[in-house]
Amino acid sequence: MKPSFTLISLLCCFCTLGCSSDRLASWNDGASKQAIVDFVDRTTSTASPDFVPQPERIAVFDNDGTLWAEQPAYFQLLFAVDRVKALAPNHPEWNQREPFTSAIAGDLEGLAKSGHKGVGELLMVTHAGMSTDEFAQIARDWLRTAKHPTLNRPYTRCAYQPMLEVLEYLRSSGYKTFIVTGGGVEFVRVFAEEIYGIPPEQVVGSSIKTTFESANGRTFIKRLPEIDFIDDGPGKAIGINNRIGRRPVMAFGNSDGDLQMLQWTTAAQGPRLGVIVHHTDAKREWAYDRSSHIGKLDTALNDAPQQGWIVVDIARDWRTIYPK
């Protein structure tokens, strides 16, 4: 006997519901997961009063601490440290000068003592003075071989599996996903598409100044040792406005550096969702928030209840941390 049309329809409905749930398979069932699923359902159903037309479905994500790990130091800083070590044989003067002495020794605490000025000097030496293509290749080569100092896995495998699922879930629901990071935009663009499925043109980040050059029959963009734009704190909202041109519907962050991005996203009319990834799992990852020197989460955590932002508790909400 052939199955009836009604039975086939019911089976399809159950399959659809199951597939929707499985898209967030690394999430434990709970309020955080349900809030994300409910919001996506409300904003993508044409019968819903909260329906958002597809061109307006913009979701923005911080990178460090939100999409991949950020301890014991930002990965871009660890990249700069490794670059200093590689360049050190040509710069013997660095052996007697901070912050290079600490970088060569791999002393992150000593490097931190040099402050923003020292770290900035380190970044300029390792990130400028070459073309954009040369820089991208250097970063690409590093990512191909470098491993996290404590997790002992490639940095490209330090992305959070639950967040990879959120990205794919949103895109399958008609959302366009953007990275909005305090990290260097050209550094993040090297790996964003491979790891997250986010193309380079959908990455907003900090940048140094560049200039157009022409020499020896070739043209190129040269990276200069001077800051152009800091995409952190208030800069994130400004960066979104200047480079995306639409106010997001959803924003995901993990620190006070994401506060203004969350505020600007959720202050608009219509359905809006703010999500904070709270690092609470010292066993599988790290536990840190208010007193951390990296990814400090204090004001945003205080504001979350009255703003209606979802606080994702990693220890409670994530079944899995990293891709297997």
Describe this structure in words.
Helix content is about 45%, strand content about 15%. With about 325 residues, the chain is an alpha/beta fold. Strands 4-3-2-1-5-6-7 form a seven-stranded mixed β-sheet, sandwiched between helices. It is globular.
Which key features would you list for this structure?
16% strand, seven-stranded mixed β-sheet, alpha/beta, 324 residues, single chain
Main sheet overview: 7 strands, mixed
Radius of gyration: 22 Å
The strands making up the biggest β-sheet line up spatially as 4-3-2-1-5-6-7
Strands, count: 7
Give the quaternary arrangement of the chains: single chain
Question: Percent of residues in helical segments?
Answer: 40-55%
Assign the structural class, choosing from mainly alpha, mainly beta, alpha/beta, alpha+beta, or little secondary structure: alpha/beta
Q: What percent of residues are in strands?
A: 15-25%
Determine the N-to-C terminus distance: 44 Å
The gross shape turns out to be: globular
Per DSSP, the total helix count is 13
Order of helices and strands: HHEHHHHHHEHEEHEHEHEH
Low-confidence stretches: 1-20
Mean pLDDT across all residues, rounded?
A: 94
